[in-house]
Structures are given as C-alpha cells and as structure tokens.
Design goal:
112 residues; alpha+beta; 5-stranded antiparallel β-sheet; globular
Length: 112
C-alpha cells in the first residue's frame, strides 16, 4: 500500500495543535482558508481566540474532550468539530479541528 496522506486534500479544513496551542499541522484547505494570515504552523492559536474560546480550548485539552457546533459566515454554513487527539501512551497530545462546509438544509436521519 502506498503512503497516501488522505487528510491533505480532504474536502474540509483540518488544523492540529499540541497541548500548548501551537499549530503543528494544517491540511491544504486549512492553509488556503487562513492564507491571509501567512503560515500558521508553529504559531500559537490562543492569541487568535477570545477569552471564552480560549477557556473552551483549555478545557478540551485538560479533559481530553470534544466540542462541536455550527457557524455561518458570509452565507456559508459550517460544522466545527474539535476533539483531543492522544499519543500512543494515551495522554492528550493536543487538539484537532475539522471545519466542514454543510448545506443550509441538511437531512437528519434517525437510525435504530
């Protein structure tokens, strides 16, 4: 099997940070999304967030938790999914955020 980086060209923006909030990876869509800010890898994400958001990020890192919500900006609706990622030893290594564009009207199915 060839070494395929499926996450690099995925149709959503992926940003990964370490436990200090330093961005360690962005896939191509994330780099394009934040291109106006330059290369963010190696930069800390805390200064880019308000105190409320900073508190959520800290809680996610401390608890190894997940946070999900929707936003709308310039008529584009997105689901934001943030979750702790873990190292091989099980300790929290940081956070990964997926930002996915979704239609305004999206089907919802209940499966049992």
């Amino acid at each position: 099997m060839e070494n395929f980086a499926w996450y690099e060209d995925m149709n959503c923006a992926i940003t990964v940070c370490d436990t200090e909030g330093v961005i360690i990876y962005q896939n191509k869509p994330a780099r394009e999304l934040y291109a106006a800010h330059g290369n963010l890898v190696g930069k800390n994400l805390f200064p880019c967030h308000n105190p409320h958001s900073q508190a959520i990020i800290r809680r996610l890192l401390e608890e190894g938790a997940t946070n999900a919500y929707t936003i709308e900006k310039k008529g584009v609706r997105k689901v934001i999914y943030q979750s702790a990622w873990r190292k091989e030893d099980g300790t929290v290594g940081g956070l990964v955020e997926f930002s996915m564009i979704v239609p305004n009207e999206m089907p919802h199915y209940v499966r049992e």
